[in-house]
Amino acid sequence: MAEQDKVGFVDALFTGGIWRTPGVIEQPEIRVVRWRVFEVLDGPRRGERHIVAYHELGAEGRVSTEIIEVDLPTRRCFTASGRIYHLDGPAGFDRDAQYVWSWWADANAVSAEKDVSQEFEA
After folding, report:
1. CB burial string 85-108: b at 16+ within 10 A, e below
2. What pTM, to 2 d.p., does this model score?
3. Are 65 and 81 in contact (CB under 8 A)?
4. What is the residue range of 36's domain?
């Protein structure tokens, strides 16, 4: 292993990891807990809203694609990917979800967001 690869490998051990989630065909709906909804305030995704949550079944933090429709009575959010997110329990902070959001925001040139979770609580 090259020296530069060793450094990257060691960094990954200490900082966790980011991976691609199953496709929508494999996983058309998921339930998430300790969720928040962020509205992007800058960059090319300005105005988009995304779910930032913990997916217990997958034991992972998640960031959704853009929310395109919301059914507040059932607390379901329909996203641009076609996936349906079920918001379980109250809105709340999750460290894994925040970690994924930080990576997503950096990759998408987002430096400011607003927590709009209260709009999604029934």
Report:
1. bebeeebeebebbebbbeebbeee
2. 0.83
3. yes
4. 27-120
For tokens 């429709």, what's the residue? 69
6 located within any domain: no
Number of domains in the chain: 1
Contact 96, 36 (CB under 8 A): no
Render each residue's pLDDT in the chain as its tens digit; 122 residues.
444 433 343 344 344 566 577 778 888 999 999 999 999 999 999 999 999 999 998 889 999 999 999 999 999 999 999 999 999 999 999 999 999 999 999 999 999 999 999 999 86
Amino acid at 36: R
